Amino acid sequence: DLPVQSGPELKNPGASVKVSCKASGYTFRNYYIDWVRQVPGQGLEWMGRVDPEDDSTEYAQNFQGRAIITADSSAYTAYVELSGLRSEDTAVYYCVIRNTQKSNWGQGTQVNVSS
Description:
The protein is an all-beta fold and 115 residues long. It is 0% helix and 50% strand.
């Protein structure tokens, strides 16, 4: 089963957005969940990850202090919250649930930041 992400978002500059990723059918604690985004016309950008086994996180330097990645193992759902949105944050956001044997991507969530 592929992860299922929340729907598209339209936000004003300065606002926050929270995108969810539900991964039913997984033993959640046996996987990492990464968040990756793709800005129009650019390549994929890794944002960070969470390990649901111990809720530890790691972030790319560009997102330190602005992104929060969490996981709710009981709900088989991970989240990324991005604050202080700017127009440059307009992108498709993807979750990736992975371990050493497989890697499955969510369908992507379009986030548009515009006044």
